[in-house]
Amino acid sequence: MRAIYFEEFGGALSVTDVPDPAPPPHGVVVAVDATGVCRSDWHGWQGHDPDVHLPHVPGHELAGTVVAVGADVRRWRPGDVVTTPFVTACGICPECASGDQQVCRNQTQPGFTGWGSFAQFVALDHADVNLVRLDGLSPTHAAALGCRVATAFRAVIDVARVRAGEFVAVHGCGGVGLSAVAIAVAAGARVLATDPSPDARQLAVAFGAEHALDPADATSAAAIVDLTSGGAHVSLDAVGQVAACEASIRCLRRRGRHVQVGLLPPAAGRPSVPMELVIARELAVLGSHGMAAHDYPRLLELARSLPLDRLVTRELPLDAGPQALAEVGAAAHPGITVLRPDAG
Fold it and tell me: Which residue numbers delimit the Enoyl reductase (ER) domain (predicted)?
């Protein structure tokens, strides 16, 4: 099969022929119809994720068609059209037993612990636990749901528990951030967004943000406090940057909730969390890590009302993937880029 492949961290990305995957006994092989290009993939390529071993094929946001099934799989057959969370859970550990597959202690992750979906085919573990059937949703839109929209959904709805009328600040308007803006607006919140890109800020406003600020302005956190008459009820670092994390906490009102969604690998530096504010204002500092497959029906219901056509701003063939991944670090393109391995 053809795949995007690298042999050293931060090194050359090439589209080359590699062996086809085989399904594990509990898993499947999926022919990839569409796969999103995410900042997490860029972190893996840069060597920021200890689970990535060389040589490697990245990619973890996907939709496609089952083409091979392991002997122990009961729920799925070749021809089924599916997506999956980026955490493929074991289904039997204590966390999975309690319904929290997104923090499974035995999790695997396509594109991180194993080869991923920047390829014509990808193997997925524990299919009966992790696959989600798609019905009427395009592969391009389903691939966008797989990490960024699903991650934003759970962060906004389940972790932050955003309520109608609350002020929500979203720091970083890439795929996760724009999804968070749209989902918070759908929940009845009043949203403020920050991003250094004018195009990303424009998209945030199009998705319903009342204000879109440039975080390069050192007073952006203070501006959010002023615009909300005391601070945001909820604030999300949706990009995973030291400055965004710190600004997210500083812009909260008393008893506000910070949710860390964007990855903050140690190589990117450690944020200076203002614990004096956390204590004095009784702030909640929360983490959010994807979403379990059994929660996807709620997401798929909401997806019908989300502006997915505007969220996915580029569809590219696999051959354009190396350049698209290299551009992620500079945030050169707003919205979500999706690769179509079957597009030639």
Answer: 10-339
Let me know whether 73 and 116 are in one domain: yes
> Cα–Cα distance between 5 and 31 in angstroms, integer?
17
What domain range is 269 assigned to?
161-287
Residue 155 located in a structural domain: no
Question: Do 251 and 221 contact (CB within 8 A), yes or no?
Answer: yes
Reply yes or no on whether the pLDDT at 241 is more than 70.
yes
**How far is Cα 244 from Cα 66, in angstroms, rounded to an integer?**
39
Residue 193 clears pLDDT 70, i.e. is over it: yes
DSSP strands (E only) in the chain: 2-5, 14-17, 28-37, 61-69, 81-83, 121-124, 132-133, 167-171, 190-194, 211-213, 232-237, 252-260, 284-287, 312-317, 336-340
pLDDT tens profile 159-189: 999 999 999 999 999 989 999 999 999 999 9
Residues 53 and 173 in one domain: no
Q: Which residues on neighbouring strands pair with residue 65, listed in sequence order?
A: 31, 81
Q: Would residue 281 count as lying in a domain?
A: yes
> Measured between alpha carbons, how far is 202 from 209 in angstroms, rounded to an integer?
9
Query: Whole-prediction pTM value?
Result: 0.90
CATH, residue 216: 3.40.50.720
Residue pair 21/70 in contact by the 8 Å Cβ criterion: no
* Separation of alpha carbons 43 and 52, rounded Å: 10
Alpha carbons 200 and 206: distance in angstroms, whole number: 10
- Domain-located, residue 154: no
- Provide the residue type at 208 as one letter: G
pLDDT digits (tens, 9 = 90+) for 242-287: 999 999 999 999 999 999 999 888 877 788 889 999 999 999 999 9
